[in-house]
Design brief:
Layout (H helix, E strand, L loop, with lengths): L2 H8 L5 H4 L18 H21 L4 E11 L4 H15 L5 E6 L3 E9 L2 H14 L4 E7 L8
Antiparallel strand pairs: 1-3, 1-4, 2-3
Length: 150
């Protein structure tokens, strides 16, 4: 048996018509017919599965994007230093979110921003790197953007 065919059978396919079902049971609700290639349902299922894997990996929902790493160390007092670096960043850049992270076996990091594209991250990187010269761009799982802001 081919591995790819067995793998495909183990996954459930979510139909796009199921994504738009109303669970409120409104009597005056309309009816939606979706006519599309069945391959689109497969793509939607893969997209949902990949986003579920992102959640399981990091413990929260997110999307692929970029952040600027301004600190990374594993020295004995790295925990305290990372707190100081984060507070220093907050004092200088109040409107940009910052995150203190830990990666075993003892690395403390401070990453800032939630950028969907590398171009978007580069604009702020040029400004931040003047204050934090050892900073650099890293791919990361970022928070979903706020739909109420531009």
């Amino acid at each position: 048996m081919d591995f790819s065919s067995g793998f495909g059978r183990a996954q459930t396919v979510i139909k796009s018509s199921e994504l738009f079902k109303s669970t409120e049971g409104k009597p005056n609700a309309g009816h939606l017919n979706i006519i599309q290639d069945p391959a689109i349902d497969t793509l939607i299922s893969r997209y949902i599965l990949s986003n579920n894997n992102l959640k399981e990996k990091n413990g929260y929902y997110g999307m692929e994007g970029f952040r600027i790493q301004i600190y990374r160390s594993s020295v004995r007092n790295a925990r305290d230093e990372s707190n100081k670096v984060k507070q220093d960043f907050i004092d200088k850049f109040q409107n940009i979110s910052s995150y203190r992270l830990y990666d075993s076996p003892g690395w403390y990091m401070v990453r800032v921003g939630d950028f969907r594209t590398k171009t978007e991250a580069t604009r702020l990187f040029l400004m931040i790197s003047k204050v934090f010269p050892n900073s650099y761009l890293v791919p990361d799982i970022i928070n979903f953007p706020d739909p109420n802001t531009k």
